[in-house]
Amino acid sequence: MNKVYAVGIGPGGAAFMTEAARAALAASDVVCGYTVYVDLVRPLFPQKTFYAAPMMQEIERCRWALGEAEQGKTVAMVCSGDAGVYGMAGLLIQLAEEYECVEIEVVCGVTAAVSGAAVLGAPIGHDFCVISLSDLLTPWDLIEERLRCAARGDFIVCLYNPKSKKRIEHLGRACEILLEEKSPDTVCGWVKHIGRSGQESNIVALSALAGEPVDMFTTVWIGSSKTQVCGGRMVTPRGYENGGKLGCAAKP
Question: What pLDDT does residue 244 have?
Answer without folding.
Answer: 54
